[in-house]
Amino acid sequence: MTGTARARAIVTSRSRPRLRPHVRLQYDNIRAAWALLSPEKVFWPNEVSLDILRLCDGHRDVGEMIAVLAEQYAAEADEIAPDVTGFLQEWSDKFLVSL
Amino acid sequence: MTSTVLPPIGMLAELTHRCPLQCAYCSNPVELLKANMELDTAGWTALFSEAAELGVLQVHLSGGEPTLRTDLAELVACLADRGVYTNLITAGVGIAEGRIEELAEAGLDHIQLSFQGAVAATTEKIGNSRGAHEKKLDTARRVRAAGLPLTINAPIHRHNMEEVGQFIELALSLDAERLEIANVQYAGWALLNRRALMPDREAVERQVEIVENAKERLRGIMAIDFVTPDYFAVYPKPCMGGWARDAFMVAPDGTVLPCHAAATIKTLRFERFGDWSLSRIWQDSPAFNAFRGTDWMSDTCRSCDRREIDWGGCRCQAMAIAGDAAATDPACIKSPLHARMAALIDDATQAGAPEEFTYRRIGKVTLPA
Prior knowledge:
The structure holds two protein chains of two kinds. Chain A is α+β, with helices and mostly antiparallel strands. Chain A has a single domain (18-94), classed as Arc Repressor Mutant, subunit A, CATH 1.10.10. Chain A has three helices and five strands, in the order E-E-E-E-H-H-H-E. In chain A, a hairpin with a 4-residue loop joins strand 3 and strand 4 (42-43). By secondary structure, chain B is of the alpha/beta class. In chain B, helix 1 (41-54) runs parallel beside helix 2 (72-81) and helix 2 runs parallel beside helix 3 (99-106). The two termini of chain B are 32 Å apart.
């Protein structure tokens, strides 16, 4: 692959996000918290972020993710959609999630 | 130390000081350890097990050149078995066929590959190694073929600063996820070679502009981490995220240090793993507790709003420039010695400053007492 072949991925309702291969979400017994491990940084996602990241399995598309989250949070899908897509775009730009 | 010491998150393991390259900017100590001083496989695996128990989530396997350790895959597997994230920091020269696949198989999470130049002539000159550039290109391709994530690391100084744009193109062409553009920090061999490495202000300004533009242009295409040069800074970096706060390093012989240059602070004594447990060192080592928190700080730092952002900056830089490890890092504009940084830049960049390097070699340099 050459540099010019690469383009910024933009999240749509049909994107199927997954954690990138160099990123790992795991439970840390010592700190009793979920940690997201990446090459230089360890992130400590909050509960909402965790619920989104757990659904990033490469199979569900964003529309389906939003439906699941809407049910979990007893919220309207339209209401939470901008937050979910915004989060996924940010994490895609940070190279933590692929779309 | 009265406040609670939280468990460490990260560890830098300098598995060996041996290296096929002789980079003049190396941050290793000038007094390099020979192979017979290195911990053996059992020593490292015992240390890694304790580190995982202590709370370490991420280990950077470095050196010297870590792939010179024939037991590297075994060490990676030991960490992977314990759920620890492993990052291999390599020069990518002379890695035998099949070795990268073996490391991937063992559970390696990520590879960081250094390039001394964006073009062959620069890489060869800085590392004093013929053919190094082509070998690195080949290593990068093999890393991608093995399905491993790749970061390209470009250590920057005056001999390659003008190549920053080319480094960005190189990293893209090698399909790297990340590029680290890391201005050299003057510790170890880099401190010894400071006058030959220091860039001038105009070059630094051009570099900053190129990198900032590239970060914007490549958003979502390649991640760029930019480590700016200390000597041109207004505020210091929170070195290691604060002394003994969430990370530490281990030298090839098992000596445990809060950062890789800490041994330059001669008033401190550092324990070796084996003599003390890792947990005891982290909790109770007087060297680790010497600059923890904010109690040790000078009034300048303790009264500063940034005290828990910068954590006083780099203790080793304070030692090197102020002659006092507890001083405010002279990189900080509030340091009474801040002007010394500018004087050191002027001294190094005036006409007649040396261009010759003292290349990194084991047993080459004896330091004055």
